[in-house]
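OP here, attaching both records as promised.
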Amino acid sequence: MKQHWIFDALGEEKLKQARQIADRYLVFCAMKNVCDSKTAISEDDLKTIGKALEALELAGIDLQGVAFDPKKDKREDRECFHWVCREAFFLMRALSIPTDEIERAKHVFKLISFAYLGQRWADVKRWLDENPAAWEVKLKESTEWDKRLFGTIYDSWLYLIRKKGWGDLNKVTENIVCLREEQKQYEKQYLNEDKSVSVKGAAWEVVSLYHLAKATELLGQYMLQGTPKEIQEQLDFHFEKGIFGSQNAFLMEMEILMRWLHLTSQMNRRE
């Protein structure tokens, strides 16, 4: 197991126990058609996996700064980062996909990020094929502009990851073009609604999502056409603006998610 102070706080045995629980469950699931193995995870086992996942994500966040920084030649930290993400992906595969669509999208976004940053891209493509529930998110059909934006971006990322031919990548472009056409219809109504949060916060939220949508479109375009040449600079610009928007909207969870997707975009365009 890789060394990190967060693992010392949790305990090495707890991490090993969580991995054993997840591995056992996945084996049972693979065998469910040929035997009567009980596949349910107990509440105690779910808590063990949950605590381990929290520790792994915290360690991953702590190590993000060295993962792709060419100025920091810290191979050991970089290897630890990839290991952390890989272990988080293995644990997340054993968890049920949330029934709430927003939570489901966040769950799958993280699972995709952990897989790519853990260098398990073939595994996550197979996971998407084997889990149709990941695709059953209808947020892009919502009349609420923030949910429609988020759902369409999520749908686009599924196609970016699956990449089954040019059709999947063309779907990304189609999705973002559709959002631009819908913006006039939904944006003003969303910002003028009577909200429990401030209009300023709502405005920052959609600004954040606009930058994420643009980064998603650029990534799809680069995979299709190899342009723009300065793709990394443009991705960095839009993700940084998106993160800034999330911070101003006080959406900490969204900020963290965008940081994961930013790093994932770097791995995805190289794969």
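Record two, same layout:
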Amino acid sequence: MRNRRGLNRIGILAIALIIAIGAVGVTYGAWVDDIYLDASVYTGTTSSAISCAAPHSTEVSCTKSDATLHITVAATVAAPTPAGSYNHNFTVLNTGDLPVKVNNIVVSTLPSGVHVSTTGVVAGSVIDPGPAASGTVNIILDTAITANISFDVAFTIVRWNQ
């Protein structure tokens, strides 16, 4: 039987079947389609440098190696260093183009009666690229010393969001 527009039931069924098969083909094509991507991503660099700055007193000296400050408090039997507080400045320069963070600061084994801390740049400090961050190594001697003491202050510096 023909409808008024000239299509019979079989014609309508054929058109519906063609549309259904086309939809299945498009869906299958989306599922099995492979995309190959060849690209380079540049995220930046992290790099830092630690340096010794001016000491607060002549008894304290500093040298550096990589991310470690080697601190010496000088004394002799003839010229003992009295008990008290001594300081030495240092700087941390972020030479990369991403912020860095001081993850931790480890002080090597100290003789009894010697206490060391840092101020200005402490564990958790974030240092942006550009100007150097300044810190101070604070040394407290409970008693006078008559021989040099040396210790290391080692910094672990990582990308800030690690």
